[in-house]
């Protein structure tokens, strides 16, 4: 499973907008909330859709602030743990 991970910090009230927008373009990417208190999310995208994901994120700047961040050291999300373990294999 080749997925590109983009970690973002957003305002908590913008998580739903981000998730809805990214996932409304079927096959583009999915959004996982990593830490809802810190509003840390991961956008997972297939390599052939990554340019579309970045274009979508840039278009969202009109409606919300987001900042790319490094991957968190610890992952409590089962899917993100699986992605990480498969990436390291």
Kindly give the count of domains: 1
The strand line-up of the biggest sheet is 2-3-1-4
Uncertain runs: none
- Average residue pLDDT: 87
How far is it from the N-terminal to the C-terminal residue, by CA?
11 Å
Q: Main β-sheet, in a few words?
A: 4 strands, antiparallel
- Structure class: alpha+beta
Going by CATH, the architecture would be 2-Layer Sandwich
Give me the Rg, rounded: 12 Å
Indicate the multimeric state. single chain
Roughly how much helix do the residues carry, as a percent range?
25-40%
What count of helical segments does DSSP give? 3
Q: Based on DSSP secondary structure assignment, what is the total number of beta strands?
A: 4
Sheet-strand content, in percent, reads: 25-35%
Structural write-up:
With 89 residues, the protein is an alpha+beta fold. The protein has a single domain (4-72), classed as Alpha-Beta Plaits, CATH 3.30.70. The protein is 36% helix and 27% strand. The protein contains 3 helices and 4 strands. It has helices at 15-24, 50-60, 78-88; strands spanning 4-10, 29-35, 40-45, 66-69. It has a 4-stranded antiparallel beta sheet with strand order 2-3-1-4, with helices on one face. The radius of gyration is 12 Å and the shape is globular. It starts with a strand and ends with a helix. The mean pLDDT is 87.
